[in-house]
Amino acid sequence: MTKTDKKNQKKINLSLNESLFPILLLIIFLSFNVYVYGDDAMGGSNQFILLLGAAAGIGLGVFKGFKFSNMMSQVAENLKSVTGAIVILLFVGALSGTWLISGIIPSMIYYGLNILHPSIFLPSCLIICAIISIATGSSWTTSATVGIALIGISKAIGIPVEMSAGAIISGAYFGDKLSPLSDTTNLAPAISGSDLFTHIKYLTITTVPTISISLIIFIILNFYMISSGPTDNTVLLEAINQTFNITPLIFIVPFIVIVLIIKKTPPIIALFTGTILGAIFALIFQQDILTQLSNSNSLTFEGAYSAIINSITVDTNIESGNSELNDLFTSGGMLGMMNTIWLVISAMVFGGVMESIGALKTITTSLLNLGKSTFSLFASTAGSCLAINLTTSDQYLAIVIPGKMFEKAFKEKNLAPENLSRTLEDTGTVTSVLIPWNSCGAYQSGVLGVSVLDYFFYAIFNWLSFFMTLIVAGFNYKIKKLEIKKA
Question: Are residues 156 and 233 both part of a single domain?
């Protein structure tokens, strides 16, 4: 976009009603589409609905005098911004494939069945994922590693997967919020003008009560809704042991991946390393599996190669002799991630169009005008973060755009910048996973194999964080003021 184009487009201002039109249209279409397709809506129809919403935005933009080429330029920028996420999704699919045929995921399930009793399973999911996420700084990595295994254990012992997914996501995002290694935890204070460790310390005011309440609720759910009596997993354990070579040595691979993440290795490199190591360990420990997958009587180089490459790229199904386990021992590889990638791309097209015509700025400015009192300022910030997550489908924009828009307003209210950074995290970071067409919601749903609508209610930490930050602001509890520097 040239300087002249930018200057001309600044003169075009959409009204709030005009800005909301594509969004309201999108919500109506998506609601009807989910009503018609149910859980199958994520298979492609929702993606097209997002493109219809983008078409409505383009039509509005052209009618108001925006250039189509400029709108496409912004869409291209949005797509460029998620290139890394798309590659990560592909490698998550690849990693799940080699971690299946190498016995890593089956071993996690095997030892998990021995250790995790149904009576403590849900709170255990939350605590384990919280620890891993704090260590790695990544909710995505947590779900792609231990999250997948915990979902497998959940299926094996008969615990509803939507509950397990909610506990996994709650723990993963708790760690993501508080870990100094997390990108969003670094981004929020950088945008608001705070510093990292002041931000983390101030986050505990809302985050610790929220995770405590979430843990209590999961304990209650476990007690009342899940059998706490003895569970005989002997048949499942024997079937796993007969199908795979189960050994603790296999855990060297996930240990290396976690260390790489802690050392701030780029996620793509860490996941690629995990994928290759999984393939190598399959050759070392699971030769019978490779022989079975290659449909031959003995393992050959060509057979092993095709089995490994297929596990990375397409569907893999391992026959265990047990129907319950057969459903667990499947992987879609990179191909299994394509619906999620398609959803992310479609969402970025819609978000790019909305940003290019100034609709997002109009909506955010309208919310800013509501912030007359201290509480309404917090509420406007929270609402803005949620609106950006709904429209741009990107949690980073849900932090950056409201952060830039409200920074001056917080200063004018004599509020310390950590108030803004905490609100951005409490509402921008955690609500992204609750929106089916958001990149985070699409990712978690694709990786865990549970639709957003199914785990939404049980992702207690995520939606409760939104309300907790408003409750704290409403009671004016520990709302830090700017320090007046003495001359």
Answer: yes
